[in-house]
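testing teh design pipeline on a random one, pls ignore if ur not involved
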């Protein structure tokens, strides 16, 4: 019996960030992920082909149809340099009735919007810091939020757009960062109260019987004085930076049993509320 045929569909980021500065990491990171997935699938005996989702989406869909694939392993996280268009690729696969891994287009689009995600989670009783979304042109800042605050692009992921200036101790710094987000990313800025404490990452696999994987923690204990304890873009991706060197991942995190239980419960509830599928973090 032949093993299922899997098409690994991927997209590559543009060579520059939205503000025009070079991105030396994005394409390599995407290709490393592609190679890792392809290597694991081949090791498990699956037949597979890889395909890049390029600008001519109609031609890509035609190729997908010709492959007669059993499943698309969807690694696409953007289209034409826009993270917000990630959902559209999933939507196209749904329209041609091709099964694919990961969440639906609706779930991807919703979770890409930080403000709407926080609103939905808060409505279901999930604790989330108070926040405001500021669009381009907004001049009046809410006095209800307590400093320090953290500002980030509303529709990006992977800590894109989050640097040390994202940590705002006063309104002057906040206004400068929000203006920078509007100018560089051409999207609203999400501003929320900074919550000090431990930073945990919770990965989930599965659907009806979703499983929480070992909880990981970002250790800020060695962060030099003067640098905010946040998981910035440099902390995640820029090897050689102080931020990268002093944000060490610890897995599994050393948590008390009651804390671990509560973290897992909140993560699973959020997973269900957002209607995630197959995997999420």
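output:
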């Amino acid at each position: 019996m032949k093993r299922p045929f899997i098409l690994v569909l991927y997209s590559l980021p543009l060579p520059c960030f939205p503000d025009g500065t070079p991105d030396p990491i994005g394409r390599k990171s995407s290709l490393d992920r592609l190679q890792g997935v392809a290597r694991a699938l081949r090791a498990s005996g699956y037949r597979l082909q890889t395909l890049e989702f390029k600008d001519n989406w109609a031609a890509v869909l035609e190729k997908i149809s010709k492959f007669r694939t059993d499943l698309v392993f969807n690694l696409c996280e953007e289209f034409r340099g826009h993270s917000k268009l990630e959902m559209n690729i999933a939507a196209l696969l749904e329209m041609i009735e091709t099964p694919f891994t990961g969440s639906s287009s609706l779930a991807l689009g919703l979770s890409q919007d930080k403000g709407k995600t926080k609103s939905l989670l808060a409505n279901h009783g999930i604790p989330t810091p108070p926040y405001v979304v500021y669009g381009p042109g907004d001049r009046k800042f809410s006095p209800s939020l307590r400093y320090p605050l953290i500002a980030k692009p509303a529709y990006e992921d992977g800590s894109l757009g989050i640097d040390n200036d994202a940590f705002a101790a006063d309104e002057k710094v906040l206004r400068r960062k929000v203006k920078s987000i509007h100018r560089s990313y051409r999207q609203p800025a999400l501003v929320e109260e900074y919550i000090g404490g431990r930073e945990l990452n919770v990965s989930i696999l599965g659907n009806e019987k979703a499983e929480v994987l070992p909880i990981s923690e970002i250790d800020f204990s060695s962060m030099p004085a003067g640098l905010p304890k946040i998981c910035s873009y440099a902390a995640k991706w820029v090897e050689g930076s102080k931020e990268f060197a002093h944000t060490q991942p610890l897995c599994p995190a050393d948590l008390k049993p009651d804390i671990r239980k509560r973290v897992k419960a909140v993560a699973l509830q959020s997973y269900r509320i957002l209607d995630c599928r197959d995997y999420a973090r």
